[in-house]
Structure formats: structure tokens, C-alpha cells
Amino acid sequence: MDFFRGLGADLTADRCEKLQSPGYVNLAISLLILFGILISYLPQHYRIIARGTSEGISPYFVLLGTTSATATFANILVLPTSRADVACCKEVSTFECAAGLLGIAQVGTQWLSFSVILALFLIFFPRLPDLPNSTTKYQYTWRTAVGVALICLVHGLATIIISTALFLARPHLLGGWANLMGICATVLAAIQYFPQIWMTYSLGHVGSLSIPMMLIQTPGAFLWAGSLAARLGMEGWSTWGIFLVTGCLQGCLLVMGIYFELRARRVAQSTEDNSNTTFIAGYARSPRVDAETDDEGGAIVEDVLTARTPLLKNSTRRNGSVR
């Protein structure tokens, strides 16, 4: 497959020259971002598996996130500068080629990681019997989850087919197609977090949504945007602009999630303290303690029944048997 198809000679020569003199600071940052992307999604994967449920994750967040990641991946693959970088691998060293393709690897890793979230969301989607109406306000059905997966699959196949057709028949249109995919990805990413923000706010807890993932990704989004901007320039705005938008929205979701987690811990601590206080006070109000002597002369202490005594205490122990 000829990646020079539809590319200007000046653009290709300029990209090959840049690949032959890579900036090592930007290279180090790009490698850090690549591994950071992979590591940042692992807490989310683990949390869904560990909890055994995807409860608390909005299906529309998964839908918009997956389609946005697909559009972003398609955008950077068909972008003229990216295709020129791939084509230059025939002329530069393996190291220079790998360094030049780190931007594509980053976006591909993000797409793969979010696709895993889609798979886990579907596998661990809670399929419980219908609950009372008061508890189903923010629940979604299994049909909704399957519908989300099918839409993501159809969108991915359509993107591949259209991109391939343009590459083979109308390569001069790939620049416009890349920008269209970038705009779609930006719009999808811009609204991606609104369903999740609303669901988290409505539930009052994060559910299976991972706070460590957002702690890594929120600042990482701004770092990633800067790295891609340095690599692609202003003409790559449709690629790096996505991450500026998602960084801001994910930051809002992160702040909300941390607030709910801290509030839940305060409530749990307050409940535990109140429970301990009531328990101690209940013993302090016990009217008396009876002591008996067992067969070996040891003391057996029995509490007189109080309001907090478990129901099993109603069984009376006599002659070593329980009645």
C-alpha cells in the first residue's frame, strides 16, 4: 500500500527531514504519554472486574467515548502529515520511524483501551430482575447495553470502509475526511462526559467509575494535547483540540467524584462512631450482670437481655444444651 498516494512532494520531504532529527525531549514526553495512557485505563478495567458490575457507568458515556476514540484514530491515520510519516519509514532508520509514529501509537492505544471498557461494560452489565420503580430511575436495560455495542461496531466498520475507499479512489479527499473525523471526534468528546456527569450526580456516587483513572488522565490530557500540537502543528488542531476539551470535562467529573467519595467516607465514619457510642451506652445501662459457676469452678457471665441483644440470645442455655 503506497502511503505517498495523494501526498505532495514538499510535505513528504519536510516530514522525512523532521523524522531524521527527532527532538529527544519531545520523544521522552511522547513515550511517557504512551505508557501513561495504557496505565491510566488499567484502574478502570480492574474496578469493573473487581466489582463484578459496570453499575454507575452511563451507557451513553461508553457509546460516545468509543465512537469518539474511533473517529480520533481514523483522523490521525488518514491525516496527510501522519501518512507522510508512515511513508518516510522507507527512508529513515527504524528508531527514527518509531519515534515519528508515537503519535499514532498513542491514539491507537487509547482506542484499544476504551474498546476494552466497552467490552467489560457489556460483559459485566447488571442483569437483575426489575426492582421497585423508586430504584429504577437511573437504571438501564440489557437491551440498551447491547444497542450501544452494536452502534459502536457499525460505526467502526463504516469508518474503516469509507477511509479505505477514499484512500484507494479519492486520496486527495483524505485531508478533508481527516478534518471531518476530527470535528466529529471533538463533538462526541465534548458531549461524552455530560451523560456520565449527570448520572454520577443523580446517583450521588461513582459506582464502577474509577477515580484513579481520572486522576491520571485529567492532567495527562493537557500534556498529550501539547505533545500532539508540537508534533502536528496548527494544521493538526482537529487531533489535539479533542484532548483539551476532554481534559476540562473529565476534570469536572473528577472533582464531583472526589466530593462524593469524601462525603461517603464522612457519613460512614459518622455512622460507625454513632454505632459505637450507642453500643457502649447500651452496656452502661444494663441493669445487672448475673454470674454462674461452671463444672470446673470458672465464672460464666451472662448479660441480662437488653434492647440491643441479638435474637439468638432468647435461647436459654441449660445443661449444655440450647433450647
TrEMBL record:
Main location per the UniProt record: membrane
UniProt topology in membrane: Multi-pass membrane protein
Cellular component annotations (GO), alphabetically ordered: membrane
Record field: transmembrane: 24-44, 56-78, 98-125, 146-168, 174-194, 206-225, 237-260
Cellular location(s): Membrane
InterPro entries the record matches: LAAT-1, PQ-loop_rpt
Protein name in UniProt: PQ loop repeat protein
